[in-house]
């Protein structure tokens, strides 16, 4: 027990921390304990944990054992769990080894990032909302009891994300939705749970955890390539404020994931001519007097404005 | 014993899926030892069977939202091959999983082949039958009907994946093909709407090459890619002489023929470079990208009408360009293990410009030629600073300040009869927001997170964009060995007022979910969510050429969602699962569409809320025949109802029976 950090395992099991840093944080007592510990052969681990070891060759971390070239602190069980000498000498126990079930989230992260920081997709993990909100790698990943063939997830990806994001789960149960439950797409097609680079298509770097398309565009365009353009006549609201201006990306009770059940109400809330808004700050153009809203033909705006996402031939998106 | 517990945990967890479609069945075989062949261990499972469905009510709506049909399917499969010593000759690992193959509307296959330290190849293939019969929730008929198949592929090859020098190559493609209906308005602004038939043909392809290396402790990752897009859809008149589908119509003006050919081909080469480093006290990364999208198009339309006789030809051609440059620079500093200070700066500069030559010959209005030129530039600079302080393992605080500056410049220009008209515009916009939060653990299994954000936007682009907004959110989670309960609340408020109109929105979401696995043989998960949305926006419109201004459009939605699932292993042979999902939008409580809220006429009052109900109970039985074989059968009901109209409701009985084989 490290009395300074109130952690059962203490900092002595973090080999990437320098000795000087340890001395500042924990005092010399921790240093002495750390020095007293030692690495043991993986065969020793196998004696008491045969179930884990016998199928460990299927685990991606088996690479560290198979190579035969890694140093002890980067190999097999002790590569993650730290030197096991004390653990063996004491006949087991979570307090004598780096047991992830009792480690604080930041120490779990530090341990995993010793190797896994070397990937661009995890470059922002330390500043991601998941990390800042106290989540650890082991909140989602299960190294020894994974449920997925990829990424050692604790559960299948959709179920895992929906465990916390219950409101999003409800959106995917809507009559109109992206086919996540059906398995066609997954949460990580649009989101990076490890933290993304700040998207710049909106203001104030929102939203978070959304992965960009190549040119920092919204991930919607990865699949809906026909909406990307460039168009000579861009629908400015779409280009400036994004797809969410009109659509609910997860799911909606309305057809085409629209924010409103009827198209004209959606359009008229912006196209009301009110000052300050729009390209010239004098309002977003309102409909002309030729539009008689009592006539049903004018109530479905996109029946005529067919190229509403952008057009090359008509400034009013008519062709 | 440990092995058995592991297997049981796998079974328990697999039963706690979200309520996905009833088939494929979750894998109940637990951890399998597989078969050893030479130096490899092979684990395989597949499920094949028959899926059926019967639908009453609106078949179109069913196909749009569920779309499962009848037939024999390879409902799901999973294969993994692992070398036992990590020294396979050609590969060390192969994993392949599939779903829905054999004509399900949603099909996918995911493959990974890997040889340690040498290469890693990832492939995903997906197919999605997209059907949209032009639905509008209010019961009206839209004009855009699609019955297309979308296919997507991703291929990624990484050489030397564990080394400091890696190489990447990738290829992605997606396509959309199939019949569709569109519409066009001829011949003037108040003309009739005519249905068009389209043979949708869209293809997008991307090729990528990249490399990653390490220099002076910094990892550098770059990638160069080429995107190509083709849309050769075109359109022809669906039904000659019929003037559209929306009643009532004015006296029909015939349209004998219409043809449109509008090939649209684009390319978008891009460069992306990133650097990142992870040190004890600080972490630095940056990402820079540049893409130069270019689009070339031709639109060739010809229309011929009678009563009165009229011929119209339209030719449009031109190019559009969109160069985009972006940059992100993130720095986080960890002076102590308790404190993290992070700053993220980003810049985004996009310019979209293009010209469009428009030539029209009309037998009544004669020739018109216009040259358009449009420019739109968006430059955004954003900076986020966040501070996170962990006072103790049980207490932590966070705060942040976010600033964005956006400059929008635009120009609209057209040349007509030798005269050029130009209307340049520029506007700037600053958004500032601050947030604060606290998280604490009163005791170890219980965690609480509270946060709030307040922001202002000096010059929002649209009336519905965030202007003066604030957000409150909270999350509580209790997690014990066999029990988990979490609850969350999120409230967003936005006020956006100007002189002529006003817009205000509030949305509140409450959700609670939990799962309980008291015994190996019994699991229960359930959840409830309520999403309340209330918006009021100013609208302006014409009724019989009379302008109505200063009126309010009110939209009110109250969506309640509940789900529950219970799994019970009756004995070692029989496994039963039952689940229920219901989503209901209660709207504003109205019983009929006629009377409503808001100051607008009845036309608007009637469409401000649309109560709908969607429910889906399901049950599944799985019977273990022997260690390698299971028989499964399941039933799922889908029911959809719109309270204000019965046109689009449906009831569907779906089910399946299958055999699962695993070793």
Strand and helix layout:
The complex is a heterodimer of chains A (319) and B (663).
Chain A (H helix, E strand, L loop, with lengths): L18 H8 L1 H9 L5 H7 L1 H5 L8 H5 L8 H6 L3 H5 L15 H12 L12 H4 L24 H8 L1 H6 L4 E2 L42 H4 L9 E2 L1 H6 L9 E2 L10 H6 L41 E2 L8
Antiparallel strand pairs in A: 1-3, 2-4
Chain B lengths: L1 H14 L19 E3 L2 E18 L1 H7 L5 E13 L9 E9 L4 E10 L3 E17 L5 E19 L6 E21 L5 E24 L2 E14 L3 E3 L19 E5 L2 E15 L3 E24 L4 E27 L2 E24 L3 E27 L2 E22 L2 E25 L2 E12 L10 E12 L3 E15 L4 E18 L2 E22 L2 E24 L4 E12 L16 H4 L6 E15 L2 E14 L2 E18 L1
Antiparallel strand pairs in B: 1-2, 2-3, 2-29, 3-4, 4-5, 5-6, 6-7, 7-8, 8-9, 9-10, 9-11, 10-13, 11-12, 12-14, 13-14, 14-15, 15-16, 16-17, 17-18, 18-19, 19-20, 20-21, 21-22, 22-23, 23-24, 24-25, 25-26, 26-27, 27-28, 28-29
Feature tags:
heterodimer, A: 319 residues, mainly alpha, two-stranded antiparallel sheet, 29% helix, elongated, disordered N terminus, B: 663 residues, mainly beta, 29-stranded antiparallel β-sheet, 3 helices, 4% helix
């Amino acid at each position: 027990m490290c009395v300074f950090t109130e952690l059962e395992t203490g900092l002595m099991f973090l080999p990437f921390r320098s000795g000087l840093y340890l001395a500042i944080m924990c005092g010399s007592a921790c240093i002495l304990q750390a020095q007293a510990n030692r690495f043991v052969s993986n065969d020793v681990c196998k004696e008491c944990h045969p179930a884990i070891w016998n199928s460990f060759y299927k685990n991606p971390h088996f690479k560290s054992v198979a190579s035969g070239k890694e140093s002890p602190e980067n190999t097999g069980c002790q590569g993650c769990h730290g030197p096991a000498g004390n653990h063996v000498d004491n006949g087991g126990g979570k307090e004598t080894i780096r047991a992830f079930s009792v480690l604080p989230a930041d120490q779990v992260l530090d341990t995993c990032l010793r190797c896994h920081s070397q990937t661009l997709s995890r470059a922002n993990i330390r500043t991601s909302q998941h990390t800042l909100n106290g989540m650890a790698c082991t909140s989602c990943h299960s190294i020894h009891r994974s449920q997925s063939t990829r990424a050692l997830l604790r559960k299948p990806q959709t179920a895992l994300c929906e465990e916390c994001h219950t409101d999003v789960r409800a959106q995917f149960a809507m009559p109109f939705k992206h086919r996540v439950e059906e398995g066609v797409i997954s949460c990580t097609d649009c989101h990076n749970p490890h933290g993304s680079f700040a998207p710049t298509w909106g203001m104030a770097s929102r939203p978070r955890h959304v992965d960009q398309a190549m040119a920092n565009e919204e991930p919607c365009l990865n699949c809906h390539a026909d909406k990307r353009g460039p168009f000579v006549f861009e629908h400015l609201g779409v280009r400036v404020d994004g797809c969410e201006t009109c659509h609910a990306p997860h799911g909606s009770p309305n057809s085409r994931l629209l924010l409103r059940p009827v198209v004209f109400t959606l359009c008229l809330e912006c196209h009301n001519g009110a000052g300050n808004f729009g390209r010239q700050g004098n309002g977003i153009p309102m409909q002309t007097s030729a539009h008689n809203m009592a006539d049903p033909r004018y109530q479905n705006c996109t029946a005529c404005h067919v190229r509403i996402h952008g057009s090359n031939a008509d400034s009013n998106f008519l062709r | 014993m440990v092995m058995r517990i592991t297997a049981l945990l796998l079974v328990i967890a697999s039963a706690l899926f979200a309520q996905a479609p009833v088939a494929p069945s979750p894998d109940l075989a637990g951890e399998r030892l597989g078969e050893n062949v030479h130096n490899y261990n092979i684990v395989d499972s597949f499920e094949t069977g028959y899926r059926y469905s019967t639908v009453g009510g609106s078949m179109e709506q069913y196909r749009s939202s569920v779309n499962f049909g009848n037939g024999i399917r390879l409902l799901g499969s999973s294969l993994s091959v692992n070398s036992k010593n990590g020294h396979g000759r050609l590969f060390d690992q192969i994993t392949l999983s599939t779903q829905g193959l054999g004509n399900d509307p949603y099909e996918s296959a995911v493959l990974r082949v890997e040889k340690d330290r040498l290469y890693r190849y990832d492939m995903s293939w997906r197919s999605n039958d997209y059907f949209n019969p032009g639905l509008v929730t209010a019961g009206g008929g839209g004009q855009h009907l699609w019955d297309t198949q979308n296919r997507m592929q991703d291929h990624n090859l990484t050489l030397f994946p564990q080394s400091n020098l890696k190489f990447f190559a990738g290829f992605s493609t997606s396509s959309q093909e199939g019949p569709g209906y569109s519409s066009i308005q001829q011949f003037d602004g108040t003309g009739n709407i005519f249905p068009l038939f389209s043979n949708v043909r869209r293809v997008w392809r991307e090729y990528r090459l990249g490399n990653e290396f390490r220099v002076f402790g910094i990892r550098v990752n770059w990638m160069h890619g080429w995107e190509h897009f083709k849309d050769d859809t075109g359109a022809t008149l669906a039904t000659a002489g019929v003037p559209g589908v929306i009643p009532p119509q004015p006296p029909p003006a015939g349209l004998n023929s219409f043809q449109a050919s509008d090939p649209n081909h684009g390319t978008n080469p891009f460069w992306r470079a990133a650097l990142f480093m992870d040190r004890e006290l600080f972490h630095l990364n940056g990402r820079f990208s540049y893409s130069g999208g270019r689009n070339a198009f031709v639109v060739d339309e010809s229309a011929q009408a009678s009563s009165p006789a009229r011929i119209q030809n339209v030719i449009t051609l031109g190019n559009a360009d969109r160069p985009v440059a972006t940059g992100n620079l993130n720095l986080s500093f960890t002076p102590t293990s308790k404190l993290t200070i992070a700053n993220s700066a980003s810049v985004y500069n996009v310019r979209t410009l293009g010209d469009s030559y428009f030539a029209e010959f009309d037998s009544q209005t004669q020739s018109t030629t216009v040259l358009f030129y449009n420019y739109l530039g968006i430059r955004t600079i954003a900076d986020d600073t966040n501070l996170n302080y962990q006072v103790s393992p049980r207490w932590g605080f966070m705060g942040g300040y976010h600033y964005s500056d956006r400059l929008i410049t635009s120009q609209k220009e057209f040349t007509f009869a030798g005269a050029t008209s130009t209307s340049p515009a520029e506007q700037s916009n600053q958004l500032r927001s601050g947030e604060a939060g606290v998280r604490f653990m009163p005791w170890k299994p219980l965690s609480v997170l509270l946060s709030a954000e307040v922001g202002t936007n000096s010059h929002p682009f649209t009336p519905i964009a965030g202007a003066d907004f604030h957000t409150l959110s909270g999350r509580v989670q209790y997690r014990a060995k066999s029990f988990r309960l979490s609850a969350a609340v999120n409230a967003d408020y936005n006020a956006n007022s100007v002189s002529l109109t006003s817009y205000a929105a509030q949305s509140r979401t409450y959700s609670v979910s939990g799962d309980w696995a008291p015994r190996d043989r019994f699991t229960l998960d359930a959840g409830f969510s309520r999403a309340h949305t209330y918006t009021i926006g100013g609208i302006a419109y014409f009724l019989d050429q009379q302008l109505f201004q200063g009126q309010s459009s009110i939209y009110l939605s109250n969506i309640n969602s509940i789900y529950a699932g219970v799994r019970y292993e009756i004995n070692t042979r029989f496994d039963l699962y039952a689940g229920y999902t219901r989503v209901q939008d209660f709207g504003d409580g109205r019983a009929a569409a006629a009377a409503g809220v808001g100051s607008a006429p009845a036309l608007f009052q009637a469409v401000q809320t649309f109560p709908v109900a969607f429910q889906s109970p399901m049950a599944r039985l799985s019977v273990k025949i022997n260690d390698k074989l299971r028989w499964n059968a399941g039933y799922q009901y889908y029911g959809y109802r719109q309270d204000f109209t019965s046109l689009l409701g449906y009831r569907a009985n779906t089910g399946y029976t299958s055999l699962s084989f695993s070793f």
